Amino acid sequence: MDAWYSLRWFDPAFWQQFRFAYPLALYLIPAILLLFALRYYLHRGAQQRLNMALGPIVGNVDSSSWFSLNRTRSARAAVSYLRYLLPGSMFMAVSLLLVTLARPQIVRERREELSQGIDIMLAVDVSSSMTETDLPPTRLAAARRVAQAFVNGRKNDRIGLVIFAGEAFSLCPLTTDYTLLKQYLSELNDRMIPASGTAIGDALARCINRMREPASAAQDSTRPAAARSKVIILLSDGDNTAGNLDPTTAARLAKAFGIRIYTIAVGRASRSQETASTVDEGILKTIAGIGEGSFFRATDASRLRAIFAQINRLEKSPVRVQVYEDVQDYYRIYLYWAIVFLLVTLLLKTTIVGNVLED
């Protein structure tokens, strides 16, 4: 920072950085200027002047006399301008005192967004029925792309991944490493689980096991009062044909742990001589109802994207914004300058210099 006596403190570009705590004090500066002008107007006829008779100038005056006379007149003109030094110094002192009262500050603001985030488990069906092409190129490929876009839109959330067919496996635990999670999603295929069928209940159980709080954490008195929200997003054709746990039982267990369930039925219910694809909406609706979530039907890729966008809007963790202000006061700088101008004013007023300027 520059020294207080630096002229940079009067740079207009520097003043644009200031925020004045009491800006009304600045409006008094024009009023002070008006008072000085009024005083000069009222007292200009009452000033004492020393009249000097130079005598009549007659006849021819040589060049040396003219030069001496012009030099005298120039000196008197210069002194006449210097008589404004005293009121000018006083005006600067008062103005700087008003600037001091206005309290100039430079405020540097820093905003910090705090979000506790939520826990989300993605349960993706990778059974052979997800290779149907009613959602081009396949149901699984469409779900994979949309899930990656959903992960990109999250912030401060922990997301995990469970895959299931005839069995269920936890592929990725809850994490905020979205790059790793998207890599897992990009590698999903129908050959990852050789067991045939669709074990929806087992998939929900795997998700619940990943999301439930340990008993020690539940008894920890230092935990925040508000627990993280927990959500399961299950993508499947809904045709539950395998597994050891009934889906409705798993849904009730999720509700007991405070976990909300969103189910997405992927694909169209159609049947022809070449292919046969089924979408069992009933079990997915039941699971969503028990889990206090919502059921969605994705018949094409655009609808699937819209569903994830809707879930993204529904499941937003509250964001708390903290604003930090670093306030630096600079009123002392202008107080020092005001004192300097006051001292100059006293010097001009109480010494012979002031008398010379007045006369």
From TrEMBL:
VWFA domain boundaries: 119-311
Keywords from the named record: Cell membrane, Membrane, Transmembrane, Transmembrane helix
Keyword Cell membrane set for record: yes
Tagged with keyword Zinc-finger: no
Membrane-spanning intervals of the chain: 20-38, 81-102, 334-357
SUPFAM superfamilies per the UniProt record, alphabetical: vWA-like
Domain of life: Bacteria
InterPro entries reported for this sequence: UPF0353/GerABKA_families, VWF_A, vWFA_dom_sf
Name of protein: VWA domain-containing protein
Species per Swiss-Prot/TrEMBL record: Spirosoma taeanense
Lineage: Bacteria, Pseudomonadati, Bacteroidota, Cytophagia, Cytophagales
